Amino acid sequence: MALSGIQIYQLLPQTNCKECGFPTCMAFAMKLAAKQAELAACPYVSGEAKEKLSAAAQPPVRLITLKADGHEVKAGNETVMFRHEKRFFHKPGLFVRVRDDQPRDAIKAKVSAAEAYKVNYVGMDLALDGFAVEAVKGDPAAFADAVGAVREVSERPLILIGRDPAVIAAGLKAIDGEAPLIHGADSANWGAMADLAKSVGAPLSVIADTLDGLVALSSKLKDKGLDDLALAPTARHLGTSLGLYTQLRRLALKKNLRPAGYPILAIPGDAPDPAYESLLAAQAIAKYAGFVVLDTFTPELAYGLLVLRENLYTDPQKPIQVQPGVYELNSPTPESPVMVTTNFSITYFSVANEVEGSGLPAWLLVTDAEGMSVLTAWAAGKFDAERIAKSVKEFGLAEKVSTRRIVLPGHVAVLSGELEEELPDWDVRVGPREAVDIPSFMKQAL
């Protein structure tokens, strides 16, 4: 049973020493109750209190980590049902699956393509996280060979899929020393799978088709000494899987039901066709998978899922930003104009896309406005003539251009006089209010 903040406070030393990083023991206790602090931060808590507080200090969803040669994929430690309540922390790992009944060259080709895929999104490089290898033949040698084929072209973490402990053991030998996720333990093989997972220190997934089945089996594995588990409902229908995933998350967060407090493994790759697979994958990312296994790899599917994941797992209280600086659009020359905007990602891409689409060369000066849009930043005092002039000097624009024409967004035309005073050698122009009007403005007025 979860403890309240007052109950936790009564077990703390109550010295208000501030060494935990909080002003009082009461503040620390409230953070512990909200799962927003670690008990280890208190240097003076007694051993008896630690034992009593252990349950209260544990996150409602256990953090598990898949490791491979310097790469890690983490899932768990989530504390809210909805991102606006606080934020989501550990992005679900996206894995591409291969099978041991596929030719070795086909396995390597699929893995190589997914391994090489990388896309830049608002200044961030997005990529897939790992690979899943499924035992279809039931042959330990074939499975080990398939795992080895993946390892020849990728060092990313793995999920090993199979119900036969002997086959999985062969795959583990091929990646000795790593910590893949073993998928998995069902009502028939859970004892042998638990022994195997414990012997190599690897996380283990729990397979069942009902909520009661998942909870019962995870309880058995916990009693057997396994702490790092994932829950793998067999539901592959949009409605059924949504219901199960949501119930598991709610039971862990709201009811503190420990057997439900583990990351969820979703396998949209079992869908009957790629279109349905993409829907299941998108839903799993949003509600509430920790690991997502795909059969299909295409750049367009990967891009959509990676961007969706990034948008959901950013801090909702912090806007997505791009790096302040000078960006070259359509190979600008020293005679090209300088367009000004803020580092709010949507604002940046709106302006950049319109300029690039026009085919006209320009320099784009992105000013640090703490990720705010033009009007919001101006109203907050984060986008003014002084800051713009400072950016012009900081990024050496005077050395890049000869005509020295600088164009302000139309919504902040009021800044033109002040900017002329800050940059007396520059020709300050006022551009359109809307990005869509930039191409016609550049053709007619510049």
List keywords for this structure.
17 helices; 3-methyladenine DNA Glycosylase II, Chain A, domain 3; Rossmann fold; single chain; eight-stranded parallel β-sheet; alpha/beta; five-stranded mixed β-sheet; 446 residues; TIM Barrel; 17% strand; 3 domains
Question: What would a concise description of this structure say?
Answer:
The chain is an alpha/beta fold. It has three domains: 5-57, Electron transport complex subunit B, putative Fe-S cluster (3-methyladenine DNA Glycosylase II, Chain A, domain 3, Orthogonal Bundle); 64-312, Dihydropteroate synthase-like (TIM Barrel); 325-445, Rossmann fold (3-Layer(aba) Sandwich), CATH 3.40.50.11600.
Protein described:
It is a single chain. The chain has 17 helices and 17 strands. Helix 9 runs parallel beside helix 10. The chain is an alpha/beta fold. It has an 8-stranded parallel sheet with strand order 10-9-8-7-6-3-12-11. It has a 5-stranded mixed sheet with strand order 13-15-14-16-17, sandwiched between helices.
Produce the secondary structure layout:
Layout: H1 5-11, H2 25-33, H3 47-57, E1 64-68, E2 71-75, E3 93-99, H4 104-116, E4 119-121, E5 124-126, E6 130-134, H5 140-153, E7 158-161, H6 165-174, E8 181-185, H7 190-200, E9 204-208, H8 211-223, E10 229-233, H9 238-254, E11 265-266, H10 274-286, E12 291-294, H11 299-312, E13 325-329, E14 338-342, H12 345-358, E15 362-367, H13 374-379, H14 385-394, H15 397-400, E16 405-408, H16 416-422, E17 427-430, H17 438-445
Parallel strand pairs: 3-6, 3-12, 6-7, 7-8, 8-9, 9-10, 11-12, 14-15, 14-16, 16-17
Antiparallel strand pairs: 1-2, 4-5, 13-15
